[in-house]
Model the fold of this input.
Amino acid sequence: MTAIALALVAAVGYGVSDFIGGVASRRVAALRIVIVSYPLSVLIVLLVAPFFGGSLTAPAVWWALASGIAAGLAVWWFYLALASGPMAVVSPLTAVLVAGIPVVVGIGIGERPGALAFVGIALALVAVVLVSRESPDSTTEEITGGRELRFTATVAWLTVGSGVAFAVSFIFLHRIPEGGGLWPIVVSRVAATLVVWLVAVAARLFSPPRGEPLRLAVYVSFLDVISSSAMLFAFQSGLLSLVSVIGSLYPAATVLLAMVMLGERVGRLQQVGMVLALGAVALIAV
Done:
């Protein structure tokens, strides 16, 4: 039960972070937000990690590095896919890969959730797809200059690559042994920072945001630390197949905030997805 609660905390944190990052990305390039939020996350974890104790082992360092690199690549590919492809296709496809791959891996390594949990996993996978569906709005049209966004072969590869990379990041996080406290998160975020910095330099976007976007990037960094830490501890006390699918329900929090804070309309399918998400959590928790 503790693992499920921590995974829920992570899902809410990721969802709120995505909402804030999305608001900031409407003013500046998303990559400019990440090049600030990731290194700030490192500093925040460095400040709080001593209070959680623990020490790093060689396996913990390697798995944390691998998780961070995968996360950095996932963010890069995901934003590239969104820049050229339709969000209504890219977002749900990425989400179902993030949720589904760890489930398959977990079952493959011998995890056997109960019958109700299996039903919950199935509902969660459907919920992730439905909740993640988005339709282009006036802001999207403004950003793209009214050009048509097509799901080309390149966009497809970027979408699949980002979904697989996000999923692999979860799997590697699950492999980190207990006893390291929050120090593995430090290593992971350092690796992710190096990846996004290299990408930003290559894309000529290595320019920190200012004003309101910078303030939002700071919020994102705090939420990232909370979510990543909760996910790490959830994986250490729970099954990969269950924790990952609960953590992947973060789009529900993003959609709910967009509805409440921005007055965005939520489609029928998204509403159904949010109800299914609640049912999935209840079944898995039982």
The CA atoms of residues 178 and 236 lie 6 Å apart.
